[in-house]
Amino acid sequence: MLDSSPSKARAVLEALARRTGPATLMEVCGTHTVSIFRSGLRSLLPEGIRLLSGPGCPVCVTDQADIDQAIAAAAVPNVTLCTYGDMIRVPGRGGSLREAMGRGADVRVVMSPVDMIPLAQKQPEREFVFFAVGFETTTPQTALLLKEADRLGVKNISVLVRHKRVMPALDLLANDAETGVKGFLLPGHVSTIIGLEPYRPLAEKYGIACAVGGFEGTQILLAVASLLSQIAQGQPRVVNAYPEGVRDEGNPDARALIDECFRPCASVWRGLGPIPDSGLELRPSFAHRDACARLGLKAFESVPIPGCRCGDVLRGRITPAECPLFARACTPQEPVGPCMVSSEGSCGAWYRYGRTGGKL
Amino acid sequence: MKELISLGEGSGGRLTAQLIAGIIENFGAQNGQKDGCEDCTFVEGSLAVTTDGFTVSPRFFPGGDMGHLSICGSTNDLAVRGVRPQWLTMGMIIEEGLPREELHRLVKSAAATCAQLGVTLAAGDTKVVPKGAAEGVFFSVTALGHSVTSKPLGMDRLKDGDALILTTSPGRHGTVIAALRYGLDLGGLESDCAPLWPLLEPLLPLPGLHCMRDCTRGGLGTVLCEWAESTSLGMEIEEEALVLHPSVTAICDILGFDPLYLASEGCALIACAPEDADTVLSRLRAHPLGREAALIGHVTAEHGGIVGMKTSLGGTRIVDMPIGEILPRIC
Fold this sequence. Notes:
The structure holds two protein chains of two kinds.
Chain A: H1 6-20, E1 23-27, H2 30-38, E2 49-53, H3 58-61, H4 64-75, E3 79-83, H5 97-102, E4 106-109, H6 116-122, E5 127-132, H7 139-152, E6 157-161, H8 166-174, E7 181-186, H9 188-194, H10 200-204, E8 209-212, H11 217-233, E9 238-240, H12 252-261, E10 262-269, E11 273-282, H13 291-295, H14 310-314, H15 338-341, H16 346-354
Parallel strand pairs in A: 1-2, 1-7, 3-4, 3-5, 5-6, 7-8, 8-9
Antiparallel strand pairs in A: 10-11
Chain B: H1 14-24, E1 41-44, E2 47-54, E3 60-61, E4 64-65, H2 66-79, E5 83-95, H3 100-117, E6 120-129, E7 137-147, E8 163-166, H4 172-181, H5 197-200, E9 209-214, H6 219-231, E10 234-238, H7 246-255, E11 268-272, H8 277-285, E12 294-300, E13 307-310, E14 316-319
Parallel strand pairs in B: 5-6, 10-13
Antiparallel strand pairs in B: 1-2, 2-7, 3-4, 5-7, 8-11, 8-12, 9-11, 10-12, 13-14
């Protein structure tokens, strides 16, 4: 349907936009956010088509209190805390993990949590804690760590589980009348795991167009075209516009792995607050790997940041530029809110790539 | 709480600029660089000087090692201002326990690069520190030489309409180091670490040659931003014109890095009058290091202070200066 040549793609989008009228779309994946900006896609969108960034950046939605707890874990003597790269820069109330490293904490960046196993085997006297964040994309790898550590009898590995589930947050947004989102650009990575089925109520119950998109500029254009075409036809459904990466049924083995190790629980999203069933906790069969219990970590309080409107940005109620702090009190150098901190946060990406509104 | 120096302040972006400004302000106005943030400074007549520290980990990597890198990195800062590298001094901080053979390999490699360039080691210093006080070995190199151009090359000569030429495909050194640190397969990729003087010398007689900069820490993106912000001119580049090594693209995709911000150690950005662009390109392409030289954009009086990119998709976007340390994303 869509040619890869930019001028033709643009013509297709414009023809569709004439039929849809003004429409607000939302991408719910941090990698999409960055790719959309890097490819300059926003500057190609027809007049009246708005593309907002939703709560798809795992770093942005990790609550401040959880970061404070991870810093507390790293401060326990003989503990090595491992986590994903862009997590270490995000500030809690007591600074960031990166700052804790400057004070002597042993914090390491891992590409995959199973990389911790040889580290833990080499230093059996130290406790290796994995600060487990991210959506369904990264959860199976944490499950794999738990199972491998048990299978190999590596006792000095525990996990601080703060994984999140995408669907409860999308439900919340779909219910939010103020947002007015007519189409969701669904996350490619998460969908490789959960498949298309969980999204169907978004289309059927809430009438929101849905398309799973890949990560190249042209793949995202394809998904946007699918959304506009669904809206134009008045037939919202769930379309897999990334069949080369996502199977409709997702990955049942990975889901079984998640289910074996974790069960849903309430979770606090930075900016959005508590959402029922949106988090994961260890099942009793893996309770012996719970870092909170093993290190005796206390729970931290999450305190709203005065003036910060990241919650409204994540819900699509405002664009980053509409926040009074944006590019004034809140910049990537001195971020106030979480969306400005991460490389994939909507405010950070908006600032770096689009603060002139996409025009040069 | 005491304020501590963060690692991000060493990444070459905005935080580094602030760190440096906070240091220089303690010296009187006669100190520091007279001509803004260039790669080297003219201290008397045509005599120029630059200094650089080397702490890369790992010290040996595909395409080079810290010895070779220390000579390339320091002399390239002279070469891009039209200064022939002639002398250098070398300080070494050696951690107790470093295998002697490793030190000799690094020094032999540095000496070979000096010989290739005809550069003389004029002075040096060694310190051995207790285990843990340094990581292996650190080098500090100061390079000196005389300019061979009649007018110094620099940002003050950038002009609206200048062609922007990149001497080779960018980001290879930074990608190699990142891949090694995070245990990723290099797919045959090597660091581009190389001395630039032999490549750039043939360009120096051209009257239209205005400004050159090697794209080290902070990468091509940072150089473009520094040029735009220092001159209030706009820079415009075309994504299609940037030829990336397939492994650079693949590794950056995995880590979530933008190749524009990854370091090169043998790649320079050149601004020249449009009428000289073809000559610059043909002279670069005649040298093995410049075979992939490409016209990537131009300087413009529009959008002053901002670097814009025309994307392959046909859109536009800003290229901003990176803020701090570049970290791999979650997924």
